[in-house]
Amino acid sequence: MATRVEEIKSDADERMGKSVEVLQNTFGRLRTGRANPSLLDGIQVPYYGTPTPLNQVATINVEDARTLAISPWEKSLIPEIEKAILKSDIGITPSASSDLVRVPLPALTEENRRDLAKQAKHEAEHARVAIRNIRRDAIHDLRELGKEKEIAEDDEHRAEGDLQKLTDKRISEVEKILASKEADLMEI
């Protein structure tokens, strides 16, 4: 009986943790004023007819604070990489040379910073909603156990309290990550 309760809490904790991880990965792709290779994570390049992640066909390095350098393993990929970056929704224009593609990141304007901060808040809200939905599902499972008399009413209430504490902890993590990203975005 108690092990089933622990399974429900453990599963909820794991799923909430994954929601926080997804938020961190999403924030990694959110452009700030500094060059970061994770900015290009979502870009796919046609490689022998198969869409392949950019980081699997090239080395991505930070050249300076505002420039990424992409060195493809095959020079024939340079035009494909350039096209893929132009087609992506990151709003950056690459410049290609004979052996690499440079991605200069323009300085963010105040308006861009506000838009990106708004997008960050939106993504954080998605994470909060996901965490609350996980809590709701776990509480539903606990109540089912209670209805079937597999756990005592006191144990059910105690477990619900534990789930609420877990939810509060994970939402607090989301808030810290959001505050950090907003500070990073608004930094000049």
Write structural notes for this entry.
The protein is α+β, with helices and mostly antiparallel strands. 59% of the residues lie in helices and 14% in strands. It contains four helices and six strands. It has helices at 2-29, 78-87, 110-147, 153-186, and strands spanning 44-47, 50-53, 58-64, 67-72, 95-96, 101-104. Strand 3 and strand 4 (67-72) form a beta hairpin. Helix 1 packs antiparallel against helix 3 (110-147) and helix 1 packs parallel to helix 4 (153-186). The relative contact order is 0.17. The model has no long low-confidence stretch (mean pLDDT 86).
Which radius of gyration do the C-alpha atoms yield? 22 Å
Binned strand content: 5-15%
| Spatial order of strands in the largest sheet | 3-4-6-5
How many runs of DSSP E, i.e. beta strands? 6
Distinct helical segment count: 4
Report how far apart the termini are.
55 Å
| Dominant shape | elongated
* Helix/strand order, N-terminal first: HEEEEHEEHH
The pLDDT mean sits at: 86
Q: Which class best fits the helix and strand makeup?
A: alpha+beta
Biggest sheet layout: 4 strands, antiparallel
Give the % helix.
55-70%
Low-confidence stretches: none
